[in-house]
Design a protein that fits this description.
The protein is mainly α. It has one domain. Helix content is 75%, strand content 0%. It has 14 helices and no strands. Helix 4 packs antiparallel against helix 12, helix 9 crosses helix 10 and helix 12 packs antiparallel against helix 14. The radius of gyration is 22 Å and the shape is globular.
């Protein structure tokens, strides 16, 4: 793929020199640091004078601050990074007439779309990794606990999952940038998709589950589990739900399942109480490997669609 390195360098320079990237990065970093400071202050006060529990460092990311935890913040607002990086990646070049000039250079045509997507992924990785390191440093100073090897590995896997999650939204934004010639139109389309998956999928799952299993019949355990399965099956069509399930198990070793409700009898509760130990990292990965594979797959699929549409389009100056 001749020329892909030049495209990546050019796009990275554009991203890091743009005002919108600087503003977005500063806003996300500021909210992350404020959330971590409040969570760290609370943990320091609660753990003062007592033995530190296992995996206390990961509590910086899972404990809920005034409004949300750091993991919840990335799950909800992280897609905006991908949307901002890609909503005008192609139609801006087309409207300014530089796309045809770029394609006339001695580079392969697919290097253009591949370079733009890879530069976005690299930018996302640098942004998340830097925020994660700064947050970890602040938390280390506040609670005075050095993370163990397993905690470091869990944070690294969390970083990789987050990169794929935001890359999914980057692929969608690039696709709309290819389909729509108007920058404002592609921006509105990407925001509409984000709002749909963030709010309406979960609301629709509850409505459908309540319609199939009415509220007056949900006291039956069998019907209650059926209602939960229907609601969860619909919710899993959202990348946000896949991401939440994956990161919840990886970043919180005390969680054993992605299910929010598990019905158990007295003997089952007695048996499970004997094993109130955190899951090993390999077991946590085993629990969420279907969610991780699904998240990676949809990211690749949407970029593949963007790639196919771009390669079939005619490139000419407007």
């Amino acid at each position: 793929m001749t020329g892909i390195g030049a495209i990546i360098r050019k796009e990275l320079a554009d991203h890091f020199s743009s005002y919108r990237f600087s503003i977005l990065f500063a806003l996300i970093a500021m909210v992350s640091l404020i959330t971590t400071y409040m969570v760290g202050t609370g943990l320091r006060d609660e753990l003062s004078g007592v033995a530190k529990p296992e995996f206390v460092f990961l509590m910086l990311f899972t404990s809920t601050g005034p409004l949300f935890s750091l993991v919840q913040f990335v799950a909800f607002f992280g897609p905006l990074i991908g949307l901002v990086l890609g909503f005008d990646s192609i139609n801006r070049e087309r409207s300014s007439g530089t796309l045809s000039k770029l394609a006339s250079q001695p580079i392969y045509r697919d290097s253009i779309i591949n370079g733009k997507f890879l530069s976005g992924v690299i930018t996302i990785f640098i942004m998340l990794a830097s925020i994660l390191l700064v947050v970890s440093g602040l938390g280390l100073k506040m609670i005075g606990v050095v993370p163990g090897i397993e905690e470091v590995w869990r944070l690294f896997i969390y970083l990789i999952i987050s990169v794929f999650y935001i890359s999914f939204w980057l692929g969608i934004s690039i696709l709309f940038s290819i389909l729509f010639r108007g920058i404002a139109t592609s921006a509105l389309a990407t925001l509409a998709i984000w709002i749909f998956f963030s709010f309406f999928v979960s609301m629709g799952a509850s409505v459908v589950a309540n319609a199939v299993v009415p509220g007056d019949k949900s006291e039956d355990p069998a019907l209650l589990m059926k209602k939960i399965r229907i609601q969860r099956g619909i919710s899993l069509t959202s990348p946000m739900q896949l991401y939440n399930d994956s990161t919840a198990i990886i970043i919180d070793p005390m969680r054993k399942t992605t299910q929010s409700l598990v019905l158990m009898g007295p003997l089952e509760r007695l048996s499970s109480a004997r094993f109130e130990r955190p899951l090993a990292l390999s077991q946590s990965i085993y629990v969420v490997i279907p969610h991780m594979i699904s998240l990676i797959a949809i990211s690749v699929i949407f970029f593949g669609i963007s790639y196919a549409v771009f390669m079939r389009q005619e490139i000419r100056s407007m």
